[in-house]
Design the sequence.
């Protein structure tokens, strides 16, 4: 099944900032050119290389959502994008170290709780599918 429909599972299973970034890239690659065209101008995320880029692009999508005045079909797509980007931003900030922090954040797949090895297995995500490009 596509990451577009299982992204919550993939995000929960991510244990590093770059894993979240890769999930975001894979999710965005599942959108068709037609869907992207239905979004407000300039809302589609720019390059996302790290967690800071992800948070910045999420804020851009959120701003577009707060000012949206278009058709409901476009609103639904914008909200799908915003929901995903927001959850990905939350996950990446859970994994990024705070200034001066020395705790191994890879042990914290959910919130701030340090999980046992057995608990970690509950959150393992299946491997990401290869992105499917739209035929042009």
Sequence:
């Amino acid at each position: 099944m596509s990451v577009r429909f299982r992204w919550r599972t993939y995000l929960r299973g991510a244990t590093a900032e770059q894993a979240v970034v890769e999930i975001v890239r894979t999710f965005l690659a599942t959108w068709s050119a037609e869907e992207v065209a239905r979004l407000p101008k300039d809302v589609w995320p720019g390059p996302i290389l790290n967690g800071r880029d992800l948070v910045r692009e999420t804020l851009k999508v959120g701003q577009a959502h707060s000012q949206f005045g278009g058709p409901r079909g476009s609103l639904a797509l914008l909200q799908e994008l915003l929901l995903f980007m927001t959850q990905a931003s939350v996950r990446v900030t859970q994994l990024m170290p705070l200034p001066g922090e020395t705790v191994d954040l890879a042990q914290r797949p959910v919130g701030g709780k340090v999980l046992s090895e057995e608990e970690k297995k509950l959150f393992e995500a299946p491997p990401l599918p290869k992105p499917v490009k739209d035929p042009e």
